[in-house]
Amino acid sequence: MSFRELPHTADIKIEARAPTKEALFSEACNALMQIMYGKDRRARDTIELVVEAGDTESLLADFLSEVLFRSEVDGMVFLNADVHIKGSHLHAIMHGEPFDRDRHVGGTEVKGISYSGMSVTWDTNGYMLEIIFDV
Amino acid sequence: MIEGVTRVGVNEWEVPVGYVPGMRVPGRFFLSEPLAQILEAGALQQLANVATMPGIIKNSLAMPDIHWGYGFPIGGVAAFALDTGVISPGGVGFDINCGVRLLTTPLEQKDVAGRRDLVDGLFHAVPTGVGAKSAHKVSPKALDEMMVKGARWAVGNGFGVPRDLVRCEEKGCMREADVRAVSAKAKQRGIPQGGTLGSGNHFLEIQVVREIYDETAAAAFGLRAGQVCCMIHCGSRGLGHQTCTDHLKVLEGATKKYQIALPDRQLACAPITSPEGKEYFGAMAAAANYAWANRQMITHTVRQVMGRMFHIEYESMPLVYDVAHNVAKMEEHTIDGRRTMVCVHRKGATRAFGPGEPDLPPELAAIGQPVIIPGSMGTSSFVLKGTQVAMDRTFGSTCHGAGRIMSRSQAKKQLSGKEIADHLLRNGIMVRAPSDNALVDEAPDVYKSSDEVVKVVHDVGISRLVARLSPIGVIKG
Lengths: 135, 477
Description:
The complex is a heterodimer.
Chain A: E1 2-6, E2 12-18, H1 21-37, E3 45-52, H2 56-74, E4 76-86, E5 89-98, H3 101-104, E6 112-123, E7 126-134
Antiparallel strand pairs in A: 1-2, 2-7, 3-5, 4-5, 6-7
Helix pairs in contact in A: 1-2
Chain B: E1 6-9, E2 12-15, E3 27-30, H1 33-36, H2 41-50, E4 60-70, E5 72-81, E6 86-87, E7 99-108, H3 109-112, H4 116-125, H5 140-149, H6 151-156, H7 162-166, H8 184-190, E8 203-212, H9 215-221, E9 227-234, H10 237-257, E10 270-271, H11 275-310, E11 319-324, E12 326-335, E13 338-347, E14 350-351, E15 370-373, E16 381-385, H12 388-393, E17 397-398, H13 408-414, H14 417-426, E18 430-432, H15 436-441, H16 450-460, E19 464-476
Parallel strand pairs in B: 3-4, 18-19
Antiparallel strand pairs in B: 1-2, 2-3, 4-5, 5-13, 6-10, 7-9, 7-11, 8-9, 8-19, 12-13, 14-17, 15-16, 16-19
Helix pairs in contact in B: 4-11, 5-11, 8-10, 10-11
């Protein structure tokens, strides 16, 4: 599993790869959290997320939008996510910790998940996504 | 220039119908030769995509700070007929009513030179960066009032003076706000963030007026050479971001329901007359009002800090103007010789109403609307005035800023936060940011020169230069 930042002038474009769709979603969440809060994130608390959406791209956008929402209103910084997908239903167990001004400052606030330039593809090597975060 | 585009004036270019399938009108954009060389093909494609949307009037337009966004290009302007047209969150952006305001002070540069405590004082008083929470947590009832009344709510609650309101676009309040169309999630995000700056390209700057190009307009706006001013650049925070996210999903469904064919999913839209379109507009207006209240609250904090530090009166720091540069508005424009209400989307573009327009305060009616164009960190910002040419050509719109040319990932490879802060300090600019990273992301080198951008809008005539300001203190979000 891995992600990297691709060149994009105005916003942040991410490419991620993973062996399964679930791991791919988890990696996208990892990218989002790293951009916002940096690498020093720990797993102390757990929360659950549930999202429903019609297709894979919408499910990904809604999942990440929900991560943004919960992170902001709960004041949580997530280390990783155990993602389970069944059809149009996503259930995630999020591991993280409360926002810590000393360790989590320094990132860039993501305003939203863009459908422009979003793609989720797969081949024999596994799953890949490209996504743009509006910052 | 990119193939398929025609030059139609010194700084004016046309994207013909057919550049992408389904265009209903041509695209028009304004660029000088140097700016044309760095135009991205993706931005042009987005400009052409907007021209495919139902009910678009005259042209899909872009200002000289055009760059690749999502949905509309950044710098994009489009007006839609109220009966046949559509409204789209992709033409507004996630940060609804991201905007800029400029305050003047009675101080001169010598009064504030080297005053690191001013930059530190403002940095501590105005919450900035990711995870920042407000000192003014509002009740759910007060939040609703903020969204209905905008800047008027803030002034009514002691965060300003009534005179501030006449110096705001729309007097700081869109009357179409519908708080019922704002989700519980958006409200939850809005409660703790009133009076916070946010992050990214948002900033608070102490600036000095360096040049006056138009004495009459400058005097009417309250500007004079050598004067210390304060510029505030921020938007509707999480409440606006969530409102865009929520309605994008609804409008995606509406796009299918009303069988609107679109080349890009991020252009999701609904007829202006449809329930979905009306709900988005009502929610967007509520978020826009939240942004005006937010900038008003920050203004209050700035006045308190500067008043305490320099023993100056609260009332001696009047507002020049406040403009929104990510918004959709119902405005009256002259179309084919007739005054007609249209829905104007400005996505990274600034309203630039010319003399005589009804929304202008009486004392500025003969001059035109003040247009505030923020520079990138460490570079000049500009004040311009709106013109009749803008009314005739661009639905009363002009540019909004500099426009990025370097990605954040590239900036991180090439630049370091400490080097940038040192470089700025050598140029007489004190900077405070939540982190080094924030400095690198927004370093001057990653932006087009705003000088070149404003020169184009001045030469085309869609706004005219009034004054140039340069920063001496920067608080980054």
